[in-house]
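Worked Example 4.2. Consider the chain below.
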Amino acid sequence: MKPEGMAEPPWRRGRTKRNKAREQRSAELQRLRHEVEGLEFTLKRLQTIRGRVESKCSSKHGFRKDSVWKEACHRQLEGQLRVERENMHLMKNLEREKQLVKRLKNLLGMRPALWNMVYPEARKLSRRIDFPLGGMKHMADLIFQELASGLRLSIGTWRKWMKLFKLPMGESLLHGINGRRAEAFGCNIVPFGMDETGNAWWQYWNNYRGQMYEDNVVIETFGFEITDRKANVTATFYQQQILRHHIEGDRVVIVWDGYMEPFLFKGERIRDVYYRKASYVLITPKMRGGEICTTVSTCETMMPHFLDPKLSKDPTVKALTEFIVSSMPSDILTSNEIVENLLLDQALRHRHDS
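Applying the procedure from the previous section yields the following C-alpha cells:
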C-alpha cells in the first residue's frame, strides 16, 4: 500500500504509459481487422452481383445475336425461293414460246402440201348468204326429218369410209356423177392436241346462226353461194343441214347430212333437182417426231336427185353437178385453213393471257 503523500517512482510511470499505448494500438488493429473483413465481405457481395449482371447481359446479347442471324437467314431463304419461283415461271413461258414456235414451223411446213392439193387459181369460193324462206317452213321441217334419219345412218357409215380411205388428198370421183354419188377426201396433220382440234372444229361450225337442237347436234338453214372467179361463174343454193359432234374414246367424229337445192346457175333458174350431201371429219391423235399432233381426215360426198329423169342428161344440170363436185376439194381445204387459223389464234391468246 502506497503511503499518502509519497510520489510514484519514475520507472513505474514510464511502464504505465507503454502499456496504455500498446492497448490503443491493439484496439486500433482490431478495429482495422473488422473493417477489412467488412470490406472483403462487401467486395465479395459486389463481385457476386456483378457476375450475375454480366451473365444476364451476356445471355441477352447472345439471344439478340441468334435472332438477328435467324432473321437474316429467313430473308435470304425467302429471296432465294422468290427468285426460283420467278425462274420457274420464266422457264414455263419459254417452253410455251418454244412450243408455239414449233407449231408455227410445223404448220408452215405442212401447208404447202395442202396448197398443192388445189391450185390457187382453180379454187372456188364458198360462202353463206341470206335466203328468204317464204312459205317453205313446212317443207323445211319435212326435209329436216329426212336429214335426221340420214344422219343416224351416217354415224355408222363413217366406219366403212375409214376402210375405203385410199384416194389421194383432195381428189374427187368425177366419173359417172349423173345420178351417182361423188366423193372428195382430205387429210391434214396439225401440231395441236386432239381435244383442242376437235373443239376448234366444233366451234368453227357453231359460229353460224344454227340452232342448237341438243348438246352435240346443230340444225341449220341458210343460203349458199359458190363462185369460180377464174371462169366468172356463180351458183346459189338453198341449203339445210344437221350436224352431230361425236366423241368416241381416242377419236372425235363430226358428221353432217345436208340438203342442197339449186336456185341460180350462170344466171339461169334451176328446178326439179336437188343434192344430198354428207360429210365426215375424223380427228385422231398422232405422234410425229416425238411431238403430239392430230390427224384430221375429211370425206365429203354428194349425190344428185332428179325429180324429172330427163334432167340427168340436161347440159345445164350436168354442168352444175360438175361445178359442185369440183368445189368439194376447195371446201375441204378452206375448212382446214379456217380451223388452223382458229387454233393459232387460241394459242396466241393463251400465250398473251399467260
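Confidence is low (pLDDT under 50) at residues 111-122, 164-177. Strands lie at 125-129, 182-190, 211-214, 217-228, 233-248, 251-265, 268-269, 273-288, 291-306. Compare this with Example 4.1 before moving on.
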